[in-house]
């Protein structure tokens, strides 16, 4: 049990900016490698805090000011880790240079025009989708989405690490940190995401009282889980494959970019469902 606690601490420290105390001597290599299984748990921590802030902001402010502040909270909880990855990836891929040159551009800490454009569009889209979600009358579904979207986006990351090679030949950076992560870790992360989703959706069905819009029942909860899981792994795989064809594999920045795009995609689906039903 102690080893898994160390792995959870490692996942929270890596993926969030929450003040989690470190174990003496830091996480072991084994604990850090196993932390990928608990990436969805770190996502749930971000999601629950985002949902709590969303409920508070929705109560106190109109939808757009609340959405802008909630966007800042959501991005800030991860220290803009994934947004930074999206901007670096956009700078590299959209430069249309050779593979080697794209990897060099992505490694540069400076942000170029394409990165600024991608980051700006991502923030604007997130704020717009959150505004739509917050002004919708079905509060329970909106808060459930905010809690679970970060779970599923991070559940795919072990699959990305396992399913595609690391693009940098030297194996430095994240390629070295996650050496040894295999299919069993990706499957376990999916199982953790499913278990966490089941707990949150069960709470939604049993506790939430929503008089308007989509009914709250077990069938709807199962459909919501199916949509989230299917979109995450299909869209994530297509995105990872497309990028790997250009770079010869994936990098730490690409993992962050995929997470960012999956969050936006899942948020877009939720807004579309609530808009039409």
From TrEMBL:
Gene Ontology BP annotations: cobalamin biosynthetic process
Membrane-topology descriptor: Multi-pass membrane protein
Enzyme Commission number(s): 2.7.8.26
Subcellular location: Cell membrane
Main location as per UniProt: membrane
TM region(s), chain numbering: 36-57, 64-83, 111-134, 141-166, 186-207, 214-234, 254-275
GO cellular component: plasma membrane
Cofactor annotation: Mg(2+)
Domain of life: Bacteria
Database matches in Pfam families: CobS (PF02654)
Root EC class: transferase
Function: Joins adenosylcobinamide-GDP and alpha-ribazole to generate adenosylcobalamin (Ado-cobalamin). Also synthesizes adenosylcobalamin 5'-phosphate from adenosylcobinamide-GDP and alpha-ribazole 5'-phosphate.
Family of the protein in this entry: Belongs to the CobS family.
HAMAP family according to UniProt: CobS
NCBIfam families from the UniProt entry: cobS (TIGR00317)
PANTHER family: ADENOSYLCOBINAMIDE-GDP RIBAZOLETRANSFERASE
Protein name: Adenosylcobinamide-GDP ribazoletransferase
Organism: Cohnella nanjingensis
Source taxonomy: Bacteria, Bacillati, Bacillota, Bacilli, Bacillales
